[in-house]
Write a sequence for this structure.
């Protein structure tokens, strides 16, 4: 039976795929990976909360895509072509763009900004929205240090729109009106 790897990461360093060296766990790459992991976990919870099969399917696909994005973001330069590293690319972004159009076409029009909340599912989808924005910021930082597939950043950027639209749909299905913030009119 193999020995467990107890204590190998206790020094604040870890390995990245394709690298034989250790990196600080608070570097830009690990920050991006950790935030994508948090987002994926939050999406899993939103999926568990949802009673809508179409939403569950979409969220499941997003989880798969987020794992692919993590693989791309967490691979050292030179190993991106490794057959074990999934390809990302523009098709993933186009998938989200089609989902946004479909979701927004079924949503009531907005005259004001809305406050996050409503049904438990919608409230959690707003948490996913904010986590996707943080993940995007971490990917922007990482892209200054690493040649990152731009489709990964674009995908995570579009996710916040998907989660916003899903939250609104969830409230509509639950018969709960979005709470408008009337301080400013939406442009």
């Amino acid at each position: 039976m193999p020995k467990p790897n107890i204590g190998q990461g206790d020094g604040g360093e870890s390995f990245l795929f394709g690298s034989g060296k250790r990196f600080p766990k608070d570097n830009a790459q690990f920050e991006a990976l950790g935030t994508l992991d948090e987002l994926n976990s939050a999406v899993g919870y939103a999926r568990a909360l949802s009673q809508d099969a179409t939403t569950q399917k979409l969220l499941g696909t997003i989880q798969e895509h987020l794992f692919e994005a993590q693989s791309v973001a967490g691979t050292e330069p030179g190993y991106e072509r490794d057959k074990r590293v999934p390809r990302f690319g523009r098709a993933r972004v186009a998938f989200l763009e089609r989902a946004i159009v479909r979701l927004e076409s079924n949503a009531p029009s907005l005259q004001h900004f809305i406050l996050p909340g409503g049904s438990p599912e919608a409230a959690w989808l707003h948490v996913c929205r904010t986590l996707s924005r943080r993940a995007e910021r971490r990917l922007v930082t990482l892209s200054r240090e690493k040649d990152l597939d731009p489709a990964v950043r674009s995908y995570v950027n579009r996710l916040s729109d998907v989660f916003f639209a899903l939250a609104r749909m969830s409230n509509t299905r639950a018969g709960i009106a979005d709470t408008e913030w009337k301080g400013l009119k939406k442009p």
About this structure: The beta strands are 13-15, 22-24, 112-115, 179-185. The chain has a mean pLDDT of 84. The domain at 25-75+86-181 is CATH 1.20.1200.10 (Hypothetical Protein Ta1238; Chain: A;). Residues 17 and 75 are 5 Å apart (CA to CA).
